[in-house]
Design a protein that fits this description.
- The chain contains 13 helices and eight strands.
- It is an alpha/beta fold and 246 residues long.
- Strand 7, helix 12 and strand 8 form a beta-alpha-beta unit.
- The chain is globular, with a radius of gyration of 18 Å.
Length: 246
């Protein structure tokens, strides 16, 4: 009997603090497809907020800790429900560790880091989660990090199409930024809100019941606009969709 694939959970700050159920649902999905899931409770942030705000020394300190927390040789992969944070580790860490004595250690870890949907589709070759069912009309938002940093586009859509009862409809400008962008939403509130408005209006035009994405940060931003403006649509992380019905 073949041994199970061992996965280390990489739980981003947003998920840990605001959407813990999404993290639990990722575990549910990974175990459903036969993975052995491990969680290191010492993990904290990947350093993306500090890095994007220009605090490179502070980001480096966090990155070194992250490297220590996720350098276990007992796991086959490191999987997260966030393309944004995976993009940080996979791409920005190259700048952080380029002249560091930790570069070899980082390269070893870098090869193992995946966002949930790309892990399911590209590594495991799975486009259907057995038992996944959720009736309704859904439209998909390509987060900037998923699309531009990680090259994720077809995988999430294939997984959604494999959910029983789910109708997937494409919105106009699905690849356009939602306006969150971390500190961008704070520094440029008016622009950020206008971008959220455009994204939600495009989603509403499809008649969708839900906006789904790989990134909780995007969905949190859109959900805040939706609630404030009382729009008739909801947001849902793809891990929560895939964990529905069973």
């Amino acid at each position: 009997m073949a041994s199970k694939i061992v996965v280390d959970l990489f739980i981003p700050c947003f998920v840990d603090q605001v959407f813990p159920q999404t993290g639990m649902n990722m575990v549910k999905v990974l175990e459903k497809v036969g993975c052995e899931v491990h969680y290191n409770p010492n993990q904290t942030c990947c350093g993306q907020p500090a890095f994007n705000a220009g605090f490179f020394d502070e980001a480096r300190q966090v990155a070194v800790k992250f490297l220590d927390d996720f350098s276990s040789e007992t796991s086959d992969y490191i999987v997260a429900p966030s393309a944004s944070c995976v993009g940080m580790v996979r791409n920005a860490y190259q700048d952080i560790f380029v002249k560091s004595s930790n570069l070899v250690k980082y390269r070893s870890m870098q090869r193992k880091v995946y966002e949930l949907t790309e892990f399911l589709t590209d590594v495991l070759g799975i486009t259907h989660i057995p038992g996944a069912a959720l009736p309704g009309r859904f439209t998909y938002h390509d987060s900037c990090s998923a699309l531009r940093e990680c090259g994720i586009k077809a995988g999430p859509r294939a997984l959604l199409q494999g959910v029983e009862g789910l109708e997937l409809v494409e919105m106009e400008d699905s690849e356009t930024c939602c306006g969150f962008g971390g500190t961008f939403a704070v520094k440029f509130e008016a622009i950020s809100t206008a971008m959220a408005e455009q994204k939600v209006d495009n989603a509403l035009a499809t008649g969708a019941d839900y906006i789904v994405s790989t990134d909780s940060s995007c969905l949190m931003h859109l959900e805040a606009y939706i609630q404030k403006q009382q729009k008739p649509i909801k947001t849902m992380h793809i891990a929560d969709v895939l964990a529905s019905g069973w």
